[in-house]
Hints:
about 325 residues, alpha/beta, 11 helices, globular, 3-stranded antiparallel β-sheet, about 35% helix, single chain
Amino acid sequence: AEGGGGTIAALSSAQRYPEDYDVVGVTGMSSYLTRHTFGQMWMWQATHKDEASFIPPAKYGVLHQAALNACDARDGLKDGIVGDVERCKFDPGVTLCKGAEGPGCLTAPQVEAARKIYAGPTNPRTKQEIYSPMYPGSEMSWAQLAGGAQPLGIPVEFFKYYVFRDPNWDFKTRPVNFDSDVEASNRPEIQPVNAVDPDLSKFFARGGKLLLVEGWSDTAVPPKVAINYYKAVVSKVGAKAVKESMRFFMVPGMGHGPGTNGEENFNFNALEVVEEWKKTGKAPDTLTFTHYKNGMDVGKRLVCQYPQVAMYKGSGSAEDPASYVCK
């Protein structure tokens, strides 16, 4: 299942109806809708605090290049992709204009907005994390959530009809509150829209297998949603059961699920992987993704199980899985 309702249905099956499927494969973990909507509104509000806060999408490349300058080489290879994302320490303040504003730098309010996006939504009172931040390397895909005159329709409808139950609610006159409104969204009757129960013990006990794949450059559902879910499953059912029955892969440079389109993309045959797993009983320890640039197949990349990173060995083609080792 990829993205949106498909992901919720797939994870719901493993969590709520463990007898239904033998193997479940999920990419783009859109399964925490009550928090997902806060993440989307946080990003929009960050760049629409006032007129000065707006980051023109034409400037996303400035942030993206600064992120690459800081972190591209961490995996041993400068290739325009941040490979070791989680350990990337990057402050957008390096893009601050030294003099007059220009197309190659950000103003102080724009830097502040970018910092909020990289930090992710937090409760202003408790400082508790509400949802995943965006990660360095994902900047070129920020426009859908941060670049428009209006927020995305999904959060607007969610707050109107689920949280506030007020069809006249207006996001401009009454902005989302990241403390009390989160509390309101925790009401039990809203929770069925989520599929984040980490207790997969019944699914695993009957031989069920879960393949979870997420992109480090996903902005529709940023990476920490899947990371937090994986860690919660390990905590709930134990590392041994997870080692036998679940595989989690984070793909550098990939957005909201595998594909072949766009400037940079990565694709793999999920069905083939889960069928092979079911047939042989041997869990995949690494995956091989086909790398696409501008719709063209340019080679293949090794993808490692989280939290490992594919490190370039120092020689060989960048588009050959044999040139990398999981570390």
